[in-house]
Each structure stands twice: as C-alpha cells, then as structure tokens.
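In keeping with the milestone schedule agreed at the kick-off meeting, the structural modelling team has produced records for the first pair of proteins. Each record is given below as a sequence line and a structure-token line. The laboratory manager (R.T.) confirmed that both were archived under the project's standard naming scheme.
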Amino acid sequence: MQLIVVREARDHSTDGEPGLLQYALSTAPLHTVVLDGLRHLWGCHAAGEPGERIGRPAPEELLWVLPGSWQAGLAAACGHMVFYGDSLSLDTRAWEGRSRSSWLAIVNGRFAAHVNHQLLGRLLETTPADCLAVTAASDLLACQERLRLTQDNQVVGYRRLYADSMSVTPIPVDWPHILFVRREAFGAALESGLLASFAAWVERCRAAGLRFQSAAIAGSAYDLESPEGMLSVCKAVLSCSSCRGSTVRPVPGRAAPPAAGQEISPQAHLVGPVVLGREVTVEAGAVVVGPAVLCDGCTVGRDAVIDSAIVGAGVSVEPNRSLGACVVTGAERRSASEPTEASTGWSPQGHVCPQDHRVFRMWPRFSYARCFKRIADVVAAVLVLILFAPVIPVIALAVKMSSPGPVFFRDKRQGLHGRPFHCVKFRTMRQGADKMQDKLRYVSEVDGPQFKMADDPRITTVGRFLRETYLDEIPQFFNVLCGQMSVVGPRPSPESENTLCPSWRDARLSVRPGITGLWQVRRTRDPQKDFQEWILYDTQYVRDFSFGLDLWICWRTFRRMVENFVSQF
C-alpha cells in the first residue's frame, strides 16, 4: 500500500499562482507524462512479504493525499485521491482492509525519488523497526569515487563502489523521501494523522512504543517544485522505454498524422519523443525536438525552435523564438517571448531511472563472450574435476599433514563488474601468512601492489610443489562452476589492488577473472616490469577477446604445467 502525500509548497508560489507540481497535475497532457513517470518510480517502493517481488503497485494500492486548495483545478491523478485542510487526518481502518502488503509506504510527493529496490527489499525483510525512514542518496550509487579526507580536508585515499550500497543514518529532521510503516503499527502511528513537523510525529510514535530506523539507499531524488526536477522526470518518461506508460504516445516525427483538434503544419518538424495536447498548433518551419511536451492550447510560431522543453497550456511561442531545456507555464496565457521565469538546463548529475552503467565493455547476448564461453567453462570445469577427482583427496591429505590449518585457503576477490566472491585454492602457506605480508613487503621482488619473493619462508614444502605444478588452483574450478570465475581471464585480484589502478580496473573487470590468462603465460618477470606487464596483458586480453585467444592461452598453460611438473623430478 502506498500513500502519496503532497504538502503545499508555498515557497514556490508567487502572486497567487500555483506551484509547479500543482500546475503539472492540473494541466493536460503534462499530468499524464508526470504521473506515468512517478508510477514507475514509486512502484519500486511497493513491498510485501519477504521474497515477494517489488514492483509497480495496483491502482487500488495508491492513495493520493493532496491539499484541499488543489481540488478545484486538478486534472487527474493515478489511484484514489483524498484532500485535507488544515490538518492531515487519515482513516487507517480503511487501509488495513485494502492493503495486501506488510508495509505502508508514505511517499513524499514533492520528490521523484528512486532507490535500489533490491537493497530496499532486503532492508524491509530484516529490519526490526516499526517505522523506516528512507532517503535516496546519489553518493551511494555504483561507480562512484568516495574520498577519504582528514580534518584538514587532505585526501588520504579513495574507494570505488562497484555496486549500489546503503548505510544507516540518523533520523532526519524533515520528512524523508519515503517512510515505511509496518502493518501492525498503522493504528498507533497514523490514528491521529500526520503532523506538519516530522520530528514531532517521530516523538509521538516513540511515545506509543514504536521503533524507528533511518537509512540512506543508493538512488536519486528530484524536487518536482523545481524546473530541473520536472524536466528530469519528463525526460525519463519520454526517453526511457521502461518508463513509458500506455497513455504516453511520443510522436515519432513529422509523418505522424495530427490528432483531432491539432494543427500541425506539413512543413513543421517533430523529432524524437514529443507529447502533444489538444488544440495544439505548430506552424510551418517550426522545429520541436524531444523529449518535449506541448500542453493543451499552446501555439508554436513559424520557424520557432523547441528543444527539450515543456510548453504550458495556452502559451504562444513567438515566431523565430528558441526555447531550450526550460519550463514555460501559461497560467495567464502569456507569450513565451521572455520565458526566463522558469527556464533551466537539464540537470547534469543524477538519474531518475535506474542507472545503466557503461563503464565496462559489453558484448551481445549470444556472443562468445556472454554465452558460449560460459558453456565452455562449465564443460571444462566438469571434465577437470572428474579427471582430478582421485588426486584431490591425496593433495588434501598432504596439505593437512604438512602444517596445521585448513586444507583450503579462501580469499575475497573482485569478479565480473566488481562483484566480490571468495576464491578457493589449496593452502600452500603456513596459517596466518597473509598477516605477515606487510612486514615482508620491503623485500618484494615485483613492483606495484602485488607481492612476490624468492624462497618465501611462509610457503610449506608441499605448497611449493603445488605452486610449481599449478595443482593448488584445482579448487578454483568450483568457482568456475558457480559462475564466479572463468578458465581464462585476468588474474583475480582483491579490491585493494583494483582501487590502486583506476585507469584500467574497469577494463579487467569487464570479464570474469580466470584461472589462467594472457599475463600468466607471457610475463617475463623482468625487474620493475611486472606491474606494467600485468596492466598491458590484462587490458590486451579484454580488447582482443576471442575464442582463438582462449585456446592459445590454454595450450600455453598446459605446456608450462607439463614442463614444470617434469622439472620437479
């Protein structure tokens, strides 16, 4: 169940004119575009039982709570509407019967907020709180650099986030973007309605014994009372196919016939997604570039240019006038010769729709990289594990007898697109050897973030044999079966190493890490060149990714394994 509460934004009203959100909801077809986008965004906040899919709610699950002063001129709204006067009182008993979910989502209707719904669903399943305040935080989105600063604002380090994240935050002073109230707490939390002050409402709920929690989740939020926010929501609806509703019909171009009441000159040019209202006139030579919305009764004069803008109802754009990335309201049917009052550019930061990160190299779905290599990896992993099945228990016994500690060593590494996983190998070092590495780093024989030294005292006798013959990496074929690794690919490395190499980490994380790879078979081990070769060969592998290259690497690896095995005797 979702309750969309809109408070009147008096700070955005001037000379008695309505605020931008009120104007948008009362103006056709702008209200259709805005509501379609908000249904998509707010639909990601519907949550039910644990494990239930979070998606767009049914219309009967939406309830708009709007200021009473908006009722007269409101054009339409999705779901049901109630209006309030001086106090916001609510009938919670009606909701308890209508709601099918475990939580009531109270959305701050002034903002178009979107958060990562998977993180949100996980939080709702695990939180012990009765009321959960959620804020959309753009700095928690994936592919962000988080700086570590001293008290003097000196940079001491940074961290790259490869996945959306969330964090616990203090209870906010003002109303959050989304407030969740557990079904069992409806009566105690909402019986007397919502107060104007969020802090006062929190104190009242705490006095009733309700538990509160606040969290920031990766996402974006736009103020719908600002031109920037309104433009961004419209742009998302018209540009993102996943946001378009059945009521939004972007005009593909000048060849589209005008609807009844519309006068579109054959010499006018409509390019991209454009939504036209009733009785819209576009004169000869005019150019309208989408995403754009032309509301009811507006006129675009001869040779005028509308570029990614919203033209309000009754507005007349003068001939030869250019409007770019602006909102022009027409409450008084004024001319758009000076549309600076609500003009703005598209916001360069943040995204209304879930982000589609393009920092990694991508391949077609049925290409070798995304489909057939995975099949080959599974077949190869099964064959190797069957072949070495009699040997694995012998190796495990030898490792156990050589030194105290577990048979397997598990280390956290970053896989495809930075997803963490535990890389498994036969243990070749004494227990606790990883904690001694920093003390021995001054004798490391390779440059860069790696560590290697001849006659490493941490390696056991059995471990040295396993390393020279590559038998210690047999358990990694279980990682291959799980889809965490590939037979061939860049060396699996931890986040600490990838963070130190910002110029090439996105390339090497575009594919699954491999048990063997181009760097392993071509490295020269020359002094002060190992790190450079690592960068060169990992990025070269991603650039030249092919079935033939994988076969060549596998052949070279097999030859080296045989040569090293023979050299041990």
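The second protein of the pair:
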Amino acid sequence: MTETRAAQTVTSDEVRAVVERVLAQTFGPRDAERARPDETVRATIDEPVGVATTAPPMHTEELPLVAVRRPEDATEAPTTEWNMRALLGVGGMGEVYSGEQRSIGRVIAMKMATSDAGGDALLREARITGRLEHPNIVPVHVLGVDDRGVAVMVMKRIEGVSWRTLLRDREHSQWRRWETQHRDALEAHVSVLLSVCDALEYAHQKRVIHRDIKPDNVMIGPFGEVYLLDWGIALELDAPPPRNHALCGTPAYMPPELVAPELSPPSPATDVYLLGATLYEALEGRPPHDAPNLFQTIAHAYASDPPAFSKDPPPALAKLCAEAMRRAPGERTESVAAFRAGLRQWLAHRDSLASSALGQQLLDSDARSRALDARLAFERALRLWPDNTQATDGLARAIRLMFLSEIARNHGTAARASLAELEALGAALPEDHAALSALDARLAAERAETARANEAQRQLDLSGWRGARVWLFASVTFACALAGALIGRAPAPTFAMLLPADVAIVAIIVVAIAALRRRLTANRIGRQLAAVLLLCALASTAVDALGLALGWPVLWASAHRLLAIGATLAFAALIELRALFVSAALAGAGAVAVVLVPERQATIVPAVLLGINVVTGWLVSSGRIRSTDAID
C-alpha cells in the first residue's frame, strides 16, 4: 500500500498541505526561517511507548567514568588517559574536540553532549556506530561520562577534507593526489561513492540505515581514505519505528518517505535514494532538491520528480542516478550492492560506454549521413567490451541505416552486404529482405532497359563505316563520274549507252557492299544506307530499261531517272532516315533542270547523281543521319 501511494503523482495542493504539516511538526515559528536546506534536521527520535526494543537505550548512570583532562586543567599534571585539546566544531547536539590518548600517544576526537537531548542522541549514535566496525566507518574507542556527568564519545581522529569541499573547490590540494590516481574528476568522485557503498552495504547487513548520506558527511583522508560520518539519525531496522513523524534528514537530498513517513517507512531503499542524490551532486555540482528556500526544497523532495540533468553526464551514470531516485521505494535500484555494481560497471567499461554514447549521439544528430561514423564508434565500444548491449543495439541500428541508404541509392551489392551483417547480428527484419528484393527487381529492369538502349544505339552507330564508307562512296562516285564522262563525249546519248553504265554502277555497288558487308551491314542503319544506295542505282537502271522497251525519248528517261532516285531517297527519308530529304530534294531539282534545259541533260544527270552521292556521303560522315526511333 505504501509503495503504491508513493508512486502516485502528487498534486500541488497535496504537496503544500504535507510540507506545511511537516514544518509545523518540526520547527517553531521562527526556526524554519533560519534552517538551511543543506543542513541536517535532527528531530527528536521518540521510542514507542510500552514496546520493548531490540537495543534498549543506555542511560548515563550505566556508563563507565571517562577521565578527561580539559584545556583549563593545564596546570595539573597530565595523569588522565584522555586529554582534550582544541575545539574542532559545534553542532546542534554537541561539540567535537581534538584530543590525545596519553598511554599510547594516539590522536583522537572527543564528542561531548551539550544538552540532555544531545546526550541521548550522542548515546544512540555511539551505540549504533560502535556496532559498525568497517574500514569506511569511523571507529568508536570509548563511550562514557566525564566527572561532570557529560556523555563523551571517543573516536578516531580523521584528518582530511569533506567530500563537499572537493566538489566545490577544484583547486584544493587534495586534487593533486587524486589526479595521479584517477583519469579525471568524475572517476575520483565515483571511487569515493564506491567506498560509501561499501560502508552502507555493511550497515544494511547489520540492519542499520543511515538516512543522511550527503557529501558533507563523507570525509576523505590525505591518502584517499573514505569515511561515512554522522550516524546520529541512523535507524535500527530491528527496532520498532519511532513514534515521532517530524522531519529528519537533509531536505536538499532526502527521499519522500523522510518527508512523510506515512508514504513508506524508512528502509534500505531510503539509503539507495540518498546514494542517487549524492551521485546527482557529483554529476551536476548541486543537490537534487536545489531550491531557494526550505519550503520549496521540502516540496521538491516530497514530489521527487525524475532528476533533470544539464551538464550532459555519462548516460550510464545518469540512468543509475534516475533509477535510484525514483519516488516509490519498490521501483528504485534494488539494493546498495546493485547500485555499487552499476558504478563499477561504468568504471570498468567507461571507454566502451563513452563510444556507445558517441554513436548514439551521431545517429540522433543526422542518421543517414553519420551512420558510418556511428558504426565505427559502436564497433570500438564492442572491441573494448564485447558484452556492451547498448553498443550491439546501436551497431544494428547504424547498419540498418546504412542498408536503407544503399537501397535509396540503388547500390545492390552494398545493400546486400549490409543485410548480411544484420543477419549475422540477428537483427534482420522481414521488411529488410522485401526492400532488397524490390531493389533487385528494379535494378534488373534498369539493366534490361539499359541493354535495350545500348542495342538501339548500336543499331544507329555509323562509326563502323569510317573506313568502309570511304571505299563505298568513292566507288559509286568514280562509277558515276566515269559514266558521265563517257556519255558526255557521245554526240547523242542513247539507252544502249545508258543501260551498260547503269549495270556497271549497280555492279560496282554490289561488289563494294559484298566486299565491305561486315562493316556495312553490321547494324540496321548500315543495312538501310547500303540498301538506299543500291535501290537508287536499280531505280536508274529500271528507268533506262523501261525507256528502251517503251521507246521513250532519252530526255524523258533522264528526267524520270532523277525522279525515281529522288522518290527512292524521299521514301527512305519518310520511313527512317530523315536527313536523306536533302539528297531527295537534290534529285528533284535535277529532274526539273533536265526538263527546263533538255539540251544539257547529258551533263545535268551525271552531275546531279554525283552531287547526290557526295551529299549522302557527307551526311553519313557528319553524323547527321539518324533513325526516326532515335529522334522520337
């Protein structure tokens, strides 16, 4: 019931009511104004009435007499065992002096009560502390009363500095020693907290909880010794709980159950919370319940919202701190030993954890572009600590982002390699395989389209004609020029003279095509051009043969020859080779010239044929001939 109550979210009205009640139970009208949030509040610890305790209180009359020689007794001979020296400090319940144990010359500390209430608290603290014999707890040598009836506790004198001083003063001389023992300040603070955990775990085994863990109550000796001090408000768990519900502890650090014990009775989880609060101060440089006045500090402690970090601490330590400071005791880190294990794990694997944190930061900043850098950080983390689950998860996330990036860039081989790595990590998802299959299908379609485009381009490539076209067009040009010269020398051309010239030109073209067939017919456009040339020669031959058979005048045959060649070229241009319209137009113009100047037909016809051959050859060599499917 109490844990459930503590886990609930509290309202502002509830917080105000609880804090006002607690302040009224603990302080007088003016005392609350003088109290500091970072100082221990020591409410009277009443024993329950009519209930026997496991460790009954010890009255001063039952204590042995401790012969104390005070400073004002300096004139007397030093015959006492315990000699008081200088005043070290004054608290709410007593005073602490330095001293000496005369018989062995040992430096000691002597704590003396200054009131009846202080005497009860001193006896209780001495009884609890004396039971806890641990290297990180100050040993109690003697408990008794002096000749004035004042309770006296003789303890080991601790030379050193409080942990809070070192947290506040980075220039303190103690840091010179620490810097030779630790890599940085945070590692030094964690090592101190580990020693505090050792003391607390021992105390919990003895069924004692401290309730006031904070940097002020941790002393660090000149050689790195760590002592957990001030067990004055500690509780013995085997004894019935105290009847008084007044505030007890340090408000700037305390858990909600120390503000309102009805939420949950103090338990080892209380000390776990205080460990988390102390770690928070080591990380942030301030107490967790840092508020301008006591009321707000206690309200913050009672609400115990999750701690907020402003200095970007190591994620592992921030998580450990947050888990230890959960409001409900049952939800906190399960024990001091578990808290200590978290600290030790961070120390042992801090470099690996730092690399993991860097990888996470890189992924969160700009996942796609920094995925490779993040992967390298996670891989380094795993080399340092193979069991780093954070790095393993981060590595899988980084590889998946790289996989998705390769998918987006259509890099099938790289994507397949990334997927294989995901499978090796056991992190491959069904959608990853589906994405790769879709990419493979898309790439296969692109390859097929590329192959088709390449083949289409090859069919239109005339680069193979470079040598062959010279011989082809040179042969046709030579034949046309020779035929024109022979015919031009005759007094009147006849079909008997034209037909042999036609046959000779056709034969020359056929021979040239046959001789150069591998180059001329290697692709479609080569075959088309060769066919056009041959068809033009055959058209000329057919016209002359038809003229001879029908008895046409040679003039008609000349005009029809050029028209037939022009029609052949025009047809070829309409179907495939658009640039041949130039040659077709030249043939048409020649036909018109023959009609208009019939007496010059013997010169016009060979000249036009020669011109058609030259123009067509130029169109081929200049690359102006293109197939219509390439244009469209």
